[in-house]
Amino acid sequence: MSFAAFPSVLIRVICGFSSSPSPLPLFFPVKKYQSIRNDCWEANHTLPATKLVDLTFGNVSILDPVEGIFAIKPSGVPYADLRPADMVLVDLEGQIVDGKLKPSSDTPTHRNLYKNLPGLRAIVHTHSRYATSFAQAAREIPPLGTTHADHFDGPIPVTRALTPSEIARDYEWETGNVIVERFKNLNPLHIPAVLVRHHPPFAWAPRGPKALENAYALEVCAPLAFQSLLLNPAAPPLPRALH
Ligand SMILES: [Zn+2]
Description:
single chain; 7-stranded antiparallel beta sheet; 13% strand; binds zinc ion
C-alpha cells in the first residue's frame, strides 16, 4: 500500500511513536511503564485522524510482555482530551495496576487476546464502517487482490455469534473467547485482524504502529472487497501465486 494514502499524522505514528517529543520534561523521573503509557496515549490520540472511529467507539492497548502489563484507553474520554497519565495499566489477571480512570469496557477482550493469541503486543479496536458492515453482514472479507494480500494472508475471518448465556455471563471476555476460538487453526500474525459478528473489528500486531497500520489497512481492503463484489458477485479470489 502506498504511504500517500495515509493521513500525515498516521505516517508519523507508523514510522514510530518515539519520534514524537516526550510529554514529560527531562528532569522528571522516568516512571515505570512510561513507555507503554506514552505509546498507548499516542495511538489513541491519533485514532480520530485515521477516520477509523466515530465518537469514542474505539480503543488501543499496548502490552509490556515482560511485565505482563498493558496500557489501555480509559472509558468514555474524548480522544482529544486524553493525556498519557490517563492511560490505565492493567495486568493479565485483570487487576488495575495504575490509573485513576475506569479502563475501556473492552478491556477484558484485550486481556483475553493477549493471554491466548501468541505474539500480540498491541491491539486496536475500532468501529470502522466498511469492516463493521462485513461483520454485521456476517461475511468474511475475501482476499480479492494484492492490496489485501499485502497485509492479510487469507480472508479476514468472522467469529460465530455469542450465545445468550455467553452474552449474559461476560460479553467482553466471551468476545475474546470467540475470537480465540476462530483462530484455533489460524496464525494471528499472518491474519492480524478479525470481524466480531454483530460487533466491529479488532486488529493487532507485535508493535503499536503496525497494529494501527493493520486496522487502517483493514478499512482500505473492506470497501475494495465490497465494491468488487458489487461489480461482480462472483469475483474470483486472489490466486495463491499472488499472495
Ligand atoms: Zn466496540
